[in-house]
Amino acid sequence: MNTSKHVLAVAAGLAVGIFNVATSVAATPSDGDVPQVAVHYSDLNLATVEGATRLHQRIVAAAKSVCPGAERRDLAVSSQARECQAEAIRRAVSEVNNVRLSAVHAAKSHGG
Prior knowledge:
Radius of gyration: 15 Å
Order of helices and strands: EEHHH
Shape: globular
Number of domains: 1
Number of strands: 2
Largest sheet: 2 strands, antiparallel
Strand content: 5-15%
Structural class: mainly alpha
Strand order of the largest sheet: 1-2
């Protein structure tokens, strides 16, 4: 368990061209160009399923804020936003590197 980090930056997974479907090739953004939001979790006990579940909820909320548009009627934009959110969540879970959080994420990702 990685206890040294208590703030996690959730960054947009597909920040470049998310709302520009016509763009087929785009430069990779620098970290400063990618939308990010801090997720604090020093108040959570990641050794418990409850703590890991709460952190997952926070990560999902953060991903929705950096990758908006999943609820739009434009299917291309909506699809890209959902992909962006999924990638941002995957990266954040990976960065935390906690077995319980990874298990919660796997369960939620498969309809759990």
